[in-house]
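User: Predict the complex.
Assistant: Input components as received:
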Amino acid sequence: MSDDVISKLSSFIASDILKQPGRELAPEAPLISSGLIDSFSLMDIALFVEDTFGVRIEDTELNSETFDTVKELEDLIESRQ
Amino acid sequence: MEITSFHFLLFVLGVLIVYHLLPHRAQNYWLLIASYAFYVFWSWKFALLLLAATIFHFELAKRLRRDGKGRPILLWLGVGANVVLFVIFKASSFYLSRLVALLGQMGIQVGLDGLRIVIPLGLSYYVLQNISYLADVYRGQIPASTNWIDFALYLAYFPKMVAGPIERARTFLPILARPRWVDNRALSRSVILIFVGLTRKLLIADLMFAHFPWGAFAVEPEAFSKIELIGWLGIYAFALYNDFAGYTSIVRGVSGLFGIELSPNFNTPYFAKNFTEFWNRWHITLSHWLRDYIFFPVNRALARRFGTGNRWQTLVIPPMLTMLVSGFWHGPNWQMLLWGILHGLYLVGERLFMLRRQARPEGQKVRWPSWGSTLIVFILVVLAWVPFAVRIPTALSLWNQLLIGNVFGFRDQGLVFPLMVLIPAIWLDLAQYNKAEEIFFLRQSQFAQATILATAMILILVVTSSDAGQPFVYQGF
């Protein structure tokens, strides 16, 4: 289950956010704090998570303190399912 | 009672001594009494207003959710009340003259002096805290507080009352609820923060502002050459930054003496490589408030309506609206709105630029040196500070002078000394940026730390003995 979540998240971020469909994202690589993903893209990710996994990420949670890596985002999703 | 004054020092010492003699729960009562005493010193009328606002929000929040769901009407009632309060006081200079003119047309003559409205101390800041508290309770992210003392202290806490930081109830209330200790490390860190703040405020900002040619700058920018304008604008940028960052360091240090950590507000903002990063480094607590309660909600609503991806609605409206709100918050006047519009355009432009290129693949070297990006962001930020400092016609004239002014003209009209002060100001930030630590010299030997602190103390005493100092700029917002 968690590999599937990580795979879907990584694929979405690589293709839709970074526009690099072939790029592999390490689950532990920082996304927000590294500047790879900005505030505009965070909402796209939040809505993807809501539509795909049925988990809502609040506006006040869209920051690196809540999640900064694909693995942390996956943990957040699984904790709310 | 300015926070750089001797009176404030005595006040803090008095509060601190009693505080550390009290048990935990009594400490919060004492801090609340001290905070209201601090506020009454400024105005007992506005202390009553703060008390009324506290009671209103405490009671409203308890009713915001029912059966596990938020009640939107009550939320909008609370948000609306804060907006009305804000507009009544902050926008008074904007609407009062128009109101007097309208009354005059109706045959009612009223002198403007009789209608002057004074802005309550800290209103701009506690209004935002009220709104964030209501929103977080409404969404079920935090329970409504049942401890009136702690909630009242959250709003009235004196170190942050004047000009922030803008704290969130979800982090601040738990701090108040638990026992607090101040160990040696926390004590030394707090004292050093205070000295860093005093250095920024008294040795950098005040010295720069004292030499700033306000009169000539505001009236006749054409009298300055391009080089002089660039020099003065750079000085203004660093003076403003050190004024506010200095204030924040001082209050964070003072608060640390009570074992209450306040949020950082600045992180070497002029080293930002893009505007998103700039707003994560400048007035951080306000930026994050705007991001969480304006930018993201608007972005979410528009994305749901128009779709995700690069639609112009989600690209343009959220950043422009967010920065307009920021401008309005700083001051409901055309200058601040222009400043907000400029930064909104910067964010939109940056986003459009980023969309045209893919994220840099892993392992690929950066083609453009990062200092180049930093320089561009700095220049654009400084240009946007112009309407922050002067009226719009003067701002236009100043920008025009930057374009067509006499490049080689330079007269020493007091520019050299502030430029010399700029050197240690830049060094302070450069060291902080390189070491990625706010109090970087804690890593130095004790002898080095003592030398630095002693030098700062002597310079502060020398400077303050001859001058009462300038009021904090952000205290006026």
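The mean pLDDT of chain A is 90.
Let me know if you want any component modeled separately.
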